[in-house]
Amino acid sequence: MRNSHEIDYKIFGNDIQVLEIELDPNETVIAEAGAMVYMEEGIDFQTKMGDGSNPNQGFFGKLASVGSRLITGESLFMTHFTHRGYGKSRVAFSAPYPGTILPIDLKEVYTNSLIVQKDAFLAAALGTKVTMHFNQKLGSGLFGGEGFILQKLSGDGLAFIHAGGTIVEKQLNNQTLRVDTGCVVAFEPGIDFSVQRAGGLKSMIFGGEGLFLATLRGTGRVWLQSMPVKKLIEALMPQGENQNKEGGFMSSFLE
């Protein structure tokens, strides 16, 4: 038996996907505020503080949960969608930018928890706990691009995360993987995440791979994205503005 609600789902589309959740009576799915696309008859929604994983949580507990979401840059509230009618009914969600929606069964993940990029969470079955996760290595916070504040999803139900572009899953067996800092979407708790300098000074400035790379080391699964939202924004910027930005950085660095 699961503590989380047992929901069914379908994912539609390729580059800009839609997640459709099918709910039985009294089943609930939680989602980031503003992610809903449509909902069928019988679905009731309420905006609440926190993720609802602990319904008996007092005011100060909810306040702490809200504070942690504020630090991660997410909305202070989550929306709870519950089927109040008969039969089955569906509610659908989409992410704020093009990419891929990845379903994760937390019951099949090491320690029933997953570390995700702070803006990767999309939706989950009620009972999933969404908390703040600090990376213990200071370098990850100073130079990691995505910061050292991540999110931790815990529970035994389905959770859905979103990534830019294509998702690549890698299985590490006491191995090391170095990637662009913005390309890390999620990893299991058995993976150590740190940020290291990208080679020598010449490689850092002219290599085109950024000044620092994320190092993932250990045993467990890692999920990577091919197009972080930061790179997408830079690609859509006017060419001249992008060059001025790079030139300004180069000048200040060399000075």
Describe the secondary-structure layout:
Elements: E1 8-12, E2 18-23, E3 28-32, E4 36-39, E5 43-49, H1 59-71, E6 77-83, E7 89-94, E8 99-105, E9 113-116, E10 121-125, E11 129-134, H2 138-143, E12 149-154, E13 158-164, E14 167-180, E15 184-187, E16 191-197, H3 201-206, E17 212-225, H4 229-236, H5 239-254
Antiparallel strand pairs: 1-2, 2-7, 3-6, 3-10, 4-7, 5-6, 8-13, 9-12, 9-15, 10-13, 11-12, 14-17, 15-17, 16-17
The SSE order reads EEEEEHEEEEEEHEEEEEHEHH
- Supply the CATH superfamily name: Mitochondrial biogenesis AIM24
Provide the CATH top-level class: Alpha Beta
Structural class per helix/strand content? Answer: alpha+beta
Instruction: State the end-to-end distance.
Output: 62 Å
What name does the CATH topology carry?
A: Double-stranded beta-helix
The overall number of domains is: 1
Structural write-up:
There is one protein chain. The protein is globular. The protein is 19% helix and 45% strand. Strand 1 and strand 2 form a beta hairpin. The chain starts with 7 loop residues before the first strand and ends with a helix. By secondary structure, the protein is an alpha+beta fold. It contains five helices and 17 strands. Strands 9, 11, 12, 14, 15, 16 and 17 form a seven-stranded antiparallel sheet that branches. A six-stranded antiparallel sheet has the order 5-6-3-10-13-8. The protein has a single domain (8-254), classed as Mitochondrial biogenesis AIM24 (Double-stranded beta-helix), CATH 3.60.160.
